[in-house]
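User: Sequence for Large ribosomal subunit protein uL3 below. Tokens please.
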Amino acid sequence: MKFILGTKLGMTQVFRQDGTVVPVTRVQAGPCVVTQVKTAKKDGVGSVQVGFGSQKKFRLNKAMRGHLKDLSSVRFIREFRTDLTDTGLERGDTFTVKVFAPGDKVQVVGKSKGKGFQGVVKRHGFAGSPATHGHKDQLRMPGSIGAGGVQRVFKGKRMAGHMGDARITVKNLEIVEVHEDAGELLIKGAVPGARGSLLIISSDEGTMEVQKETEAPAQEEVQAEPEMPANEDQKEESTVSTEETSEAPAAEEKTEEENKDVQ
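Assistant: Structure tokens for Large ribosomal subunit protein uL3:
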């Protein structure tokens, strides 16, 4: 299983090698950091908690600061149900868009644009009533809402109400291009949400490629050792030189004593 978090940048179009035009959505994805790894034995469920985006530390409450100890302050946190044997993720691991490749099929989860309170024509696609022939002020009205004998409205009746601002999942979308330097994914077609909204991108196939935090090896201190002569000849030369230096002052003393005797 592969997954990543990102934000929607907008839509554009790209050309394939055969010249066909493909409409794509630009997504700024990653880098993401693993904030927690849950196991079925300890937490009751196997999942990976992922953080994305930057956040000022003072905006986090004390509980979140403790949860993100020794990690960077993230803005979004989401969990993915997965088997830990497939991912091999650990707390503190970081991954980018490199986990995906062109041609991968993914599903994208986002929150649709909120449209407020809307009528049945826009919300459910009702055709409305005729504009003339006795239908005064009935053009966009819902009409009858059911039989009168039951004295109630059946559940699920399509009526006016709040529209949008809902969790939407779009499956089987193709990744057209992966821009590693910019950290962008180009996904074929449209995805839910406005510009800048959070997107959850996942695929059941493949494995995660993460960057492990490695510590620099400690440098060993090398102590300077005194230089030793390489062979016995060098040892003999050193002893001879020391004897000559010791005999030189003794010879000078003898010459001085001889001069005194002569006088």
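The chain has two domains: 2-113+166-203, 117-164.
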